[in-house]
Amino acid sequence: MKPRLAALLVPVLLALAGCTATTGGEDPAAGPTRAARPSPFADCATLTTAPGSTPAPTGSAAGSPLPELVLSCFTGGAPVQLRDIHGPAVINVWASWCPPCRKELPAFQRLSVRAAGQLQVIGVNSRDSRDGAQAIGEDFGIRFPVLFDQGEALQRELRRTAVPLTLLVDAQGRIRHTDTSGALDDARLADLVRRHLGLVVPA
C-alpha cells in the first residue's frame, strides 16, 4: 500500500517542484513591465518641425548635409530621416557606458531648456542597451528627443568612432561643426552655438 501511495505522490511532487523552479528563475512578466516603463525622453515627432528662429549660416564654409540615414526614435513611433530634421540643431551622440557622455548630458538638457524655440537638442544613443539608456535618462532627467543607433550608422557615415560626438547643424540642415573635444559644459556649449549657429544662448 505504501509503495503504491508513493508512486502516486511522485508525479504530484515533481509537478510542484517544476512550478517552483520556473517562478524562482527569470520572471516572464519582468520584460514587459520594464518595456512598459514610461520613457524619460521626448517624442521625436517635433524633430521635423523647424524651431521659431532660423538664422542664416555663419562663416564661409558651406558645411555638409546630414547623412541620408533613418533612425528609430527611442519612444517609438515613426522612424526619423536625418535629412528631414529641421535646424538649427545640436545633435549629441552618447552612450550610457561612456563617462564623458554621462558628465555632459545634463548640460545638453539645460541647453534644450534655455534655447527652446531657438534650436533643437537631439540625442543619438549609440552602441548601447535600451535599459542603460533609459536608466541614464531617468537618473539625469534628460527630456529632449533621443534617436536609437545600435549599429553606429551615424558614426560610420561621419567616419568618427569615439563618443561623445556633437554636431552643430544650421537652419538649412548642414553640419557647421563637429566637436570631439570631450565632455562639454554649459559655457562651452553656449560658445559653440554662438560661433557656429549664430545664436546667443545663456550659459
What does this protein structure show overall?
With 203 residues, the chain is α+β, with helices and mostly antiparallel strands. 36% of the residues lie in helices and 18% in strands. The protein contains six helices and eight strands. It has helices spanning 2-24, 30-35, 99-114, 130-140, 153-158, 186-197; strands spanning 64-65, 70-73, 80-81, 89-94, 120-126, 146-149, 165-169, 174-179. It has an eight-stranded mixed β-sheet with strand order 1-8-7-4-5-6-2-3. Strand 2 (70-73) and strand 3 form a beta hairpin. The longest helix is centred in the N-terminal third of the chain and has 23 residues, at 2-24. The chain is globular. Residues 10-35 and 53-60 have low confidence and may be disordered.
Strand proportion, as a percent range, falls in 15-25%
Reading the helices and strands in chain order gives HHEEEEHEHEHEEH
Shape, per Cα inertia axes: globular
- Spatial sequence of strands, sheet with the most strands: 1-8-7-4-5-6-2-3
* Main sheet specs: 8 strands, mixed
Tally of helical segments: 6
